[in-house]
Specification:
Elements lengths: L2 H64 L6 H4 L11 H11 L51
Length: 149
């Protein structure tokens, strides 16, 4: 091997190394551009979401101020203009659902006799040393004899 062949081999090897380095740099650059693009898209999406949240919070604060400071769902909740719901739609849907069921048989009639009148109990006579009235309030201590043992 002559020195010229050795020099040509080294130049060829250096060209391969330079080409490989350029390809790596190009790959790194494309990855950086792709990551920057993705992060910008995510940031823009998050910025739009934050903007919508700010608008909703401002609208809620405006409604609360308009309602005189009463922050309740009925005053600050989101409703479409003219939308009023009384729940009748649910009742109609339930009636339509039950329309397919067969009718129940009527319950048999029982003879109507009035129940016997309750017999009032005679009032209990207070006995003993501590006489109290029939009605006693647990929080009322006016009838308590505090000196009795």
């Amino acid at each position: 091997m002559s020195s010229e062949d050795l020099g040509a081999g080294f130049r060829h090897k250096m060209a391969q190394i330079e080409r490989e380095a350029e390809e790596r740099l190009a790959l790194i650059g494309s990855r950086v551009r792709k990551d920057l693009k993705e992060s910008k898209e995510a940031s823009d999406k998050q910025l739009r979401t934050v903007g919508q949240v700010i608008v909703r919070v401002q609208e809620s604060a405006r409604r609360a101020a308009k309602a005189g400071g009463w922050v309740m769902e009925s005053t600050v909740g989101d409703k479409a203009k003219g939308e009023v719901s009384f729940g009748f739609e649910d009742d109609e849907a339930e009636k339509e659902r039950r329309a397919d069921y067969p009718a129940a048989e009527p319950a048999p009639q029982r003879p109507s006799t009035p129940p016997p009148a309750p017999v009032p109990a005679p009032p209990a006579a207070p006995s003993g040393r501590h006489r109290r009235g029939v009605h006693h309030d647990e929080d009322d201590f006016t009838n308590t004899d505090w000196l009795a043992t």
